[in-house]
Design a protein that fits this description.
alpha/beta, Rossmann fold, six-stranded mixed β-sheet, 10 strands, about 25% strand, binds adenosine-5'-diphosphate, binds magnesium ion
Length: about 240
């Protein structure tokens, strides 16, 4: 269970997060949505230790992780992908997955024993490229490799920052099925950021809507879409774009 309480973060004069609060339980798929600049990536960066919040707390299964850094968060079981892909580009595809698996073996050997690297590579259609440098892969394969690497960590929490960006409708559907498979096989809590609302609504049990650094609504997907504040943010956006 992830529990984020009143996290704030300012960059220079920009308040990227204002008392952002959310939770996500094991086995749940939570959609994190909101306009560009709402603070979604900053929140995921604060949860995964990539940046240190100015205030507030991040706890996973009761364990305090606030400000402990990305490596500590990975060791605690937070796997993630990035809005702008961040692979070890000069390592091979297999090595990218192995690095995460080694971390898992060190901290959660029981979970690591259940993860097959070959199986992950096959499942994410990467077996044909296993010995290629990750940076040479086509875009869609790099996105799949980021997910495979996050899963090799044996995550309790999986954070996916715009995983469907740049995918067509068929590819997005394949990805949605894969994320549902992760829920049933790994049982982790999953947070998905995406602008494709069809993809989000089809996939997510609950939504958390952000605007200007704040969480303005959260709850079950259908109920959130009836919330006047959410309608205002989305209708206002379509009127101005
Ligand atoms: N490293 C940074 N330095 C300065 N400003 C940043 C940085 N990261 C994000 N911001 C600002 O914080 C706000 C929230 O950004 P972000 O979390 O990327 O939004 P989203 O992912 O919802 O589009 C934006 O105004 C953005 O310009
Ligand atoms: Mg973002």
């Amino acid at each position: 269970m992830l529990s984020v309480e009143a996290v704030s973060k300012t960059f220079g004069g920009v308040q990227a997060l204002r008392d952002a609060t959310l939770s996500c339980a094991a086995g749940e798929i939570l959609g994190l949505i909101g306009p560009n600049g709402a603070g979604k990536s900053t929140l995921v960066n604060a949860i995964s230790g990539v940046l240190k919040p100015d205030s507030g707390s991040v706890r996973l299964d009761g364990r305090e992780l606030t400000g402990q850094g990305a490596e500590a968060c990975a060791r605690a079981g937070i796997g993630r992908t990035f809005q702008n892909i961040r692979l070890f580009k000069d390592l091979t595809v297999r090595q990218n997955v192995e690095v995460a698996h080694i971390t898992c073996q060190a901290v959660r050997p029981d979970k690591a024993a259940r993860i097959g690297i070959d199986q992950l590579l096959a499942q994410y259609e990467l077996d044909g490229f296993a010995d290629f440098a990750a940076g040479t892969l086509p875009y869609g394969s790099q996105r799949r490799l980021e997910i495979a690497r996050a899963l090799a960590l044996g995550p309790s929490l999986l954070l996916l920052d715009e995983p469907a960006a740049g995918l067509n409708e068929t590819e997005s559907e394949v990805l949605a099925v894969a994320i549902e498979g992760i829920r049933s096989e790994v049982g982790c809590a999953t947070i998905v950021i995406d602008h494709d609302l069809r993809f989000i609504n089809r996939l997510c049990d609950r939504l958390c809507v952000m605007d200007q650094g704040q969480v303005i609504a959260s709850g079950e997907t259908e109920a959130v879409w009836r919330d006047p504040r959410v309608i205002e943010v989305y209708v206002g956006q379509s009127e101005t774009s």
